[in-house]
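Incident log, support desk, overnight shift.

02:14 A customer reports that sequence design results differ from what the structure should imply. Their input is reproduced verbatim below. On-call engineer (initials T.W.) acknowledged and began investigating.
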């Protein structure tokens, strides 16, 4: 009997151990399920709080197309009340999309046939959502009538848009105009353009690749990547300011040509600028000075500065765009430094991004998020939603921004943008001539802001394959600044 009891004890212990193991496995499974459930709840919460609106408004969301069966697409308006896109219904109840200004807003407003682009894409969900009187919507649902979608009131000013569009003329390029302290985009032009009213009939011709390289559908303002040329000397100067407390120590003797790290650097037309301080070097846009002094800078720190200004980063912009690139650091070939310091080399930037850089300087070192939609209204004009300015990030100190503003003002007062002095307003900015292919004329740049002592507007202009920024981009900017000044007085 005693032997049987002793035999039973190991069995009992094994059974107990087995039960304990099973319990641990059950507990482990319970913890896993609890963890998965918690992760699911966190994801759902994140989706509702942050991601849902992007998914709903995404132009690839097929559910949006079903809204068009019940809602007539709303209108898109300029900030000063002009209708930029509208839906017209004929006697048969057929709806067509109309763009009263034709080519002028082709890229920024976009189109809603053959896919969607521009604001038509950004605000697609809102344009197909009706916030009309609830009783009216119920009645329309019961009678199977379509509701009228909400209207999008943009930040675009029709007067500035027209001036920018006309000033660019028949040349390829882009213009961006925005408010530095809010991020509101006041005008956006890209050429070559197209007539969105004819998008269906011209689709094959404008999407076909040809030798001209027109890329007609490309919004050059946000998707066109260009070498920044001498406009990039603004960042080279900022990095110099960060590394040198006493700017008066800057001194360079320009003979029109110099060799830096084995690379020959010429000033434009081999111009001899003579003895230069930092102010005059930037004003005269001396390639030799910036290549020589730029090569002495800490390239890793410069890389961080470029990234702070959102090179190689996502832009805080809702529409379609391409990321700008800056690749130089301490490990790069020393021969790449001279060209990079003057805005050539492998660096590429979009006009919108260049406008944001100068906007940051104009706004005391704070970059605002650029945006195109000011508010949403129902078709009766009742407010549905108002969008407010948002800070993207603090990039540089207020003091650095003030010093840089003073230097950029010198470019207009005594340098390559001196033709802007004819306006009755103080302007700060930088010209650029971006070489991109041997034997072809450079892309012409100007980016600047006014008034320099209390900036209200930033203008970025790029004109492809024409020559210097002072000759081709500055006159366009001048017309826009003059138009803005006139509007402010009205």
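02:41 Re-run completed on a clean worker. Output:
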């Amino acid at each position: 009997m005693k032997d049987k009891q002793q035999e039973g004890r190991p069995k009992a212990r094994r059974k107990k151990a087995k039960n304990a193991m099973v319990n641990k496995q059950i507990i482990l499974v319970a913890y896993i399920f609890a963890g998965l459930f918690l992760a699911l709840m966190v994801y759902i919460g994140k989706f509702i709080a942050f991601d849902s609106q992007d998914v709903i408004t995404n132009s690839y969301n097929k559910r949006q197309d079903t809204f068009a069966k019940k809602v007539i697409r709303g209108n898109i308006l300029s900030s000063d009340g002009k209708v930029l896109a509208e839906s017209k219904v004929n006697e048969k109840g057929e709806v067509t999309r109309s763009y009263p200004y034709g080519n002028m807003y082709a890229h920024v407003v976009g189109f809603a046939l053959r896919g969607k682009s521009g604001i038509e894409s950004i605000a697609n969900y809102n344009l197909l959502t009706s916030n009309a009187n609830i009783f009216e919507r119920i009645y329309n649902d019961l009678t199977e009538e379509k509701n009228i979608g909400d209207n999008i009131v943009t930040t675009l000013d029709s007067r500035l848009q027209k001036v920018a569009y006309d000033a660019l003329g028949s040349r390829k390029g882009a213009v961006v105009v925005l408010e530095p302290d809010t991020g509101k985009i006041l005008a956006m032009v890209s050429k070559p353009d197209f007539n969105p009213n004819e998008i269906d009939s011209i689709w094959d011709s404008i999407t076909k690749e040809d030798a001209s390289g027109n890329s007609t559908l490309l919004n050059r303002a946000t998707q066109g990547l260009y070498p920044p040329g001498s406009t990039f000397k603004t960042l080279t100067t900022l990095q110099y300011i960060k590394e040198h407390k006493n700017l008066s120590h800057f001194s360079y003797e320009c003979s029109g040509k110099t060799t830096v790290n084995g690379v020959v650097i010429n000033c434009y037309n081999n111009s001899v600028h003579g003895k230069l301080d930092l102010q005059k070097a930037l004003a005269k846009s001396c390639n030799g000075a910036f290549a020589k002094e730029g090569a002495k800078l800490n390239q890793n720190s410069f890389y961080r500065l470029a990234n702070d200004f959102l090179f190689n980063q996502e832009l805080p912009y809702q529409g379609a765009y391409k990321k700008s690139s800056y690749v130089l650091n301490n490990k790069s070939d020393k021969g790449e430094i001279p060209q990079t310091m003057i805005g050539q080399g492998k660096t590429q930037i979009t006009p919108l991004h260049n406008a944001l850089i100068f906007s940051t300087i104009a706004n005391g070192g704070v970059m605002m998020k650029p945006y195109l939609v000011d508010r949403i209204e129902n078709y009766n004009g009742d407010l549905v939603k108002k969008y407010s300015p948002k800070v993207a990030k603090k990039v540089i100190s207020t003091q650095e921004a003030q010093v840089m503003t003073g230097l950029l003002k010198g470019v207009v007062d005594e340098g390559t943008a001196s033709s802007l002095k004819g306006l009755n307003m103080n302007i700060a900015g930088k010209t650029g001539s971006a070489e991109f292919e041997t034997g072809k004329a450079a892309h012409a740049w100007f980016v600047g802001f006014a008034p320099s002592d209390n900036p209200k507007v930033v203008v970025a202009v790029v004109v492809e394959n024409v020559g210097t920024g002072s000759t081709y981009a500055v006159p366009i900017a001048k017309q826009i600044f003059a138009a803005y000044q006139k509007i402010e007085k009205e």
